[in-house]
């Protein structure tokens, strides 16, 4: 009977494991070609100031557009890229492409573009030089970028990591912690590195209820700590007006989420920026009248 159960379990798990293994293999085999073929693109999700809902910037999020138009999301290929080392050329492409877009966007208005960095990229010596190279190639100020890393990256005690972050700091490139609160419990790294912004993870935002003060306990604690350490806060994954209002009441600085804007292709984001500029000019004109 045990043997039979074992065999049943085996049969039950195999198709799923097989599918995942072959997905991975497919991704691995095709990602390199996709990069050479220019199939990667950056989408931009707008970020807003919480008190007045004004656009302040965007997060750049990579997508893989297949020749037939299908979009593959980063969750499917970033982990594979990290395992195979392809994340190094991929991450460098993201940096260059983001800087190119920033140089165009800055002609319309001041914005801050956030870029995700993988741990693999940060552990490899030379990242700060790469960033400096792209900044000067496109003639953009370091303060127009923001680099996002997760907590685990800052827990790394290696000299390479602290050297890279101190170089970036000296250059004036802001640093944000992504998915804050979901990683490690030690906060010692907040004293070792100067962090500009904490991005409050979506898991602490999704449950916010106006009629339940406990639902906001963690978000509120993060905002309080950020304030005393003079860091900004940005809430991720804001989907409802109720969540928005709870965060505003707590004094969170910024937000991003489906409520105010989904990630979108560059051309759509440019249109978004243009409309924002036009609205602001209209407001100024009304005040002058
Ligand atoms: P992340 O950096 O935490 O990005 C936020 C993710 O949440 C994005 O998923 C975004 O589309 C999604 N999101 C935004 N607003 C909402 C909302 O209101 N509700 C919900 N349910 N989701 C929302 P996406 O684009 O699939 O990216 C997933 C992850 O892939 C990112 O998480 C980031 O860790 C990674 N990633 C994306 N682009 C890059 C990149 O260029 N380089 C690296 N190394 N990683 C990247
Ligand atoms: Mg991010
Ligand atoms: Mg995040
Ligand atoms: Mg997240």
Automatic annotation (TrEMBL):
Protein name, as recorded: EAL domain-containing protein
Residue stretches making up the EAL domain: 24-277
Residues of the full protein shown: 802 to 1090 of 1090
Source domain of life: Bacteria
Record's subcellular location: Cell membrane
